[in-house]
Q: What sequence folds into this?
C-alpha cells in the first residue's frame, strides 16, 4: 500500500504533517499507519505529525504504540477573500529582502514566547530551513515583520499553499509579547488577508490555531472566518539518540 496516495500531507526537510485522509474511517487510518510504520524514510524525519478529525480509541492506541503522543486540539477556519472589507494598512511590512534574516528570526522567536499554541520542538534554524523547503525560492517574500513607528510588533508569513490552487495560508502569525492585548492582532491579520488576495493571488484562506488559543479564535471570528472543523494532533519526535 502506498500510504501517500491515501492522505493529504505536507513534507519539509525534517518533518512531515499528515493533514487528512481521503476516506475518514478508523480502518483506513489503521492501514495507513501500518504502511507508515514500514516506511523507513518517514522515521528519518525529526518530527511526524498526524491530524485526526475524530478521536478513536483503536487508532489512538496504534499511534501510541508507534511512539506518538497527543499534542493539541486545533480548530480550522476558512475565509472567502472576495468578501473582505476595505483594506486599511495600519502597519509597515518588511520582508527579509529589506531586513537581515537574523533580525527576522529574532523577532519570530520573540513572538513565540508565551504563546497559547503548542510550542515548536524545532530550533529556529530548522524552522527557517523548513520554510525555505516548503515554499521554495520565493519564501523570502513570505517572511514579514510588521512595524509600527519603526518598532517591530509581530511576524506574519503569508503564502500560497503548494499544490492547492487559490489557497492562501499563514505559515506563522503572532505578536511580540508586549503588543498582545492592545487591539493589534485583528487589524494585522486582516491586513495579511488582503496581502494574500492582492499580492499572492489567493481566492480563499485557511487558518488554524490551538483550541485553547482564545485570543486568536476571536481574531478569526471578527475577521469573518467560518469554522470548518477540529483536528486532534499527535506527534512522533525523534529522540536525542536518533530513535
A:
Amino acid at each position: 500500500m502506498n500510504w501517500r496516495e491515501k492522505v493529504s500531507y505536507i513534507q519539509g526537510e525534517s518533518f512531515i504533517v499528515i493533514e487528512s485522509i481521503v476516506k475518514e474511517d478508523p480502518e483506513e487510518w489503521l492501514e495507513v499507519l501500518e504502511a507508515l510504520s514500514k516506511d523507513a524514510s518517514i522515521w528519518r524525519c525529526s518530527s511526524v505529525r498526524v491530524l485526526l478529525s475524530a478521536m478513536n480509541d483503536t487508532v489512538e492506541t496504534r499511534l501510541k504504540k508507534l511512539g506518538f503522543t497527543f499534542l493539541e486540539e486545533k480548530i480550522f477556519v476558512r475565509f472567502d477573500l472576495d468578501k473582505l472589507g476595505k483594506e486599511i494598512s495600519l502597519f509597515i511590512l518588511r520582508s527579509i529582502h529589506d531586513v537581515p534574516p537574523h533580525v527576522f528570526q529574532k523577532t519570530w522567536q520573540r513572538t513565540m514566547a508565551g504563546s497559547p499554541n503548542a510550542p515548536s520542538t524545532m530550533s529556529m534554524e530548522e524552522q527557517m530551513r523548513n520554510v525555505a523547503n516548503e515554499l521554495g525560492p520565493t519564501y523570502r517574500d513570505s517572511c514579514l515583520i510588521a512595524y509600527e513607528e519603526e518598532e517591530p510588533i509581530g511576524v506574519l508569513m503569508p503564502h500560497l499553499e503548494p499544490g492547492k490552487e487559490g489557497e492562501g495560508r499563514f505559515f506563522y502569525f503572532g505578536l511580540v509579547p508586549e503588543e498582545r492585548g492592545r487591539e493589534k492582532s485583528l487589524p494585522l491579520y486582516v491586513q495579511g488577508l488582503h496581502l494574500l488576495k492582492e499580492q499572492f493571488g489567493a481566492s480563499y484562506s485557511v487558518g488554524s490555531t490551538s483550541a485553547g488559543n482564545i485570543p486568536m479564535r476571536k481574531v478569526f471570528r471578527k475577521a469573518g472566518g467560518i469554522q470548518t472543523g477540529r483536528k486532534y494532533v499527535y506527534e512522533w519526535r525523534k529522540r536525542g539518540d536518533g530513535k
The chain has a mean pLDDT of 92. The two ends are 24 Å apart (CA to CA). Residues 79-230 form a domain with the Aminopeptidase fold (CATH 3.40.630.30).
